[in-house]
Design a protein that fits this description.
The protein contains 16 helices and no strands. By secondary structure, the chain is mainly alpha-helical.
């Protein structure tokens, strides 16, 4: 397996893990507490990573971490949950699937990654595939919900692009940077959650197990792999792994919740998965003539000597 393929495979674990969020939320967590769920996903995981790495931001990285944490977590989670509550699940997933298109535009603006026909086509194809998987006939639209969904997708897309643009400070690992962002994002959600939802309810053992999975498996590990992948992949390649999340959610819904999965949904999965794979393929660039020819050291030295003699003869 090539290094890029290994990076793609590890990064893909993140959106696949996020596809389990709906199942865990509905089966393990108290109802009607989306902001509490966002808070308990982000803040405990961030604090645990801070304790593990024992590194704090320095200099400009205080505000950079705050910006990245707000974009990737603090703004993204509340907007995502608002969209989920205002829209049917299928509509919310389709609205969120436009993220790759946002990334293509933002990457061109801030990273100098010129949009190509391939990147635009794969992004549109992936969104179409997702729509076949999750969108049902007669699905209702809500302007506030659609706006929240688009803003959540834009927030996450901007987080991807600026994570790519800023990288991370020298001597700081991806695990520490993940901890900074999760902590900052959790602190953004904290006052919003208490202001809107009030004090948390009494939690059962099942609730605690669900929150523990979301905080550490679904968030700490998954976001570490996600941010690590963003460093190594192009922004468009990373975001085109996103459709794996609704595909995973649909498969879990079929296997664990008995939800119907017909031919149209299977076709949508194949289309979205094919677009995801296509987004990871790098176009081959033809080698320059100087790169095609190769010489042994002896041949190279002989060629240099011959050229020196020719120059010397011209000068004489």
């Amino acid at each position: 397996m090539s290094r890029k393929a290994a990076t793609v495979a590890l990064t893909a674990i993140a959106p696949i893990s996020w596809g389990s969020t709906y199942y865990v939320t509905t089966e393990f967590l108290p109802p009607d507490r989306p902001l509490l769920t966002g808070l308990l996903r982000a803040l405990p995981a961030g604090l645990a990573l801070l304790a593990l790495t024992r590194k704090l931001p320095q200099g400009a990285w205080w505000w950079k971490s705050a910006v990245l944490g707000a974009l990737n977590i603090g703004a993204f989670f509340p907007l995502l949950f608002l969209a989920a509550y205002r829209l049917p699940g299928g509509v919310a997933a389709v609205v969120g699937s436009v993220g790759p298109l946002f990334v293509v535009g933002l990457a061109a603006l801030f990273l100098g990654e010129k949009p190509t026909v391939k990147s635009l086509l794969t992004a549109v194809t992936a969104a179409f595939g997702v729509s076949l998987v999750v969108l049902k006939a007669g699905a209702a639209f809500d302007l506030v919900g659609v706006g929240a969904g688009l803003l959540s997708s834009l927030s996450m897309s901007a987080g991807i692009v600026f994570t790519k643009r800023w990288g991370r400070p020298e001597g700081v690992g991806a695990l520490a940077l993940t901890g900074w962002q999760l902590t900052a994002g959790g602190l953004v959600i904290l006052p919003i959650a208490f202001l809107i939802e009030g004090a948390p309810p009494a939690l059962t053992g099942t609730n605690l197990a669900g929150y523990a999975y979301l905080a550490f498996g679904n968030t700490a590990i998954s976001y570490f792999l996600w941010f690590r992948g963003i460093e190594r992949l192009s922004a468009s390649s990373a975001t085109l792994l996103g459709p794996l999340s609704p595909i995973t959610a649909a498969v879990i819904g079929w296997a664990a919740l008995g939800q119907a999965l017909g031919p149209v949904q299977v076709l949508g999965m194949l289309i979205a998965f094919g677009a995801t794979l296509a987004g990871q393929l790098s176009p081959r660039t033809p080698a320059k003539p100087s790169e095609v020819e190769s010489f042994s050291p002896a041949e190279k030295n002989g060629q240099e000597v011959s050229m020196d003699l020719e120059v010397s003869a011209v000068r004489r």
